[in-house]
Amino acid sequence: MKGCAFLNSCDLYIGLAPIQFTNDQARIYWVLSFMKGDCTACFTDQTMQLAQQTRSLPWATWAEFRIELIHNSCLKNEVQMACMDLETSKYHQGSHSVDEYIDKFCELVDCTEYTEGTNIVLKFQHGLSPIIQDYIACLTYGQPSNDIPKDWYDAVILCNENHIANSAFQSTLQSTRTTAITGGGAHHNPITGVTKPVHSAPAHVMVVVGELIPTPPLKSCCHSGAGVRRQGLLVCTHLHRGLPEI
């Protein structure tokens, strides 16, 4: 989109320094002086030849020149390519970030000079990541207008920030849960008053954190009869290895 970017830069400079240009003719001559590429140079040569013959430029205003430059020079190819991109899935977000997608989409819209708000919003929705689309669809307040693209851009940026924050929170929460299950911290015995570090239990042992419940007299669950009763619990010595002492 070099051609569109060039025109936008010209518009920006002319808007910032209007006193440097006495009229639209001066603006047009100034822009032509920068058009020296393979394609644009041909357009400039034809324009200057015509100006010498008629002693004036063929455009009375800057707006007329801008339209002519877009539709009758190599910039026309860029407009056609942008239109084709918006009619295919080439512009879709895919693996790009939300900011990258919005910037690219706005660039295509500016180049094609689409003005139909509803059509722009529809194409923008169509190219969005399904995850962000679901976030927008679940909004119960502040639904963006279907004919104002700016509302959609702002809503998508906000939903994306919420999605990133929620993902980070869930990741931290999952890490905390994993640490609690696999070990870490200390175990306090309310009976003996002793606090000892908790070690990771073997994979075949389930550790239940809770209140000690006295058990009735039971037979050892080990075939070898190696059962040991401690504080009202029957503990198999085969499974006791690796558990915290109580």
Please tally the β strands and state the result: 4
How many discrete structural domains? Answer: 3
Output mean pLDDT: 74
Beta percentage is 5-15%
Helix content: 40-55%
Shape category: elongated
- Structural class label: mainly alpha
Q: Helical segment tally? A: 10
Could you list the spans in which at least 5 consecutive residues all have pLDDT below 50?
203-215, 218-246
Order of helices and strands: HHHHHHHHHEEEEH
Give an overview in words.
The chain folds into three domains: 2-73, no CATH class; 95-177, no CATH class; 191-246, no CATH class. The protein contains ten helices and four strands. The radius of gyration is 36 Å and the shape is elongated. The strands form two sheets. A two-stranded antiparallel sheet has the order 1-2. A two-stranded antiparallel ribbon has the order 3-4. Helices cover 55% and strands 6% of the residues.
Quick overview:
This protein is mostly helical and 246 residues long. It has ten helices and four strands; from the N terminus they run H-H-H-H-H-H-H-H-H-E-E-E-E-H.
From the structure above, extract its key features.
10 helices; two-stranded antiparallel sheet; mainly alpha; two-stranded antiparallel ribbon; elongated
Helix-strand layout with pairing:
Layout: H1 2-16, H2 24-32, H3 38-54, H4 62-71, H5 75-86, H6 98-112, H7 117-127, H8 130-137, H9 149-182, E1 186-188, E2 195-197, E3 227-230, E4 233-236, H10 237-240
Antiparallel strand pairs: 1-2, 3-4
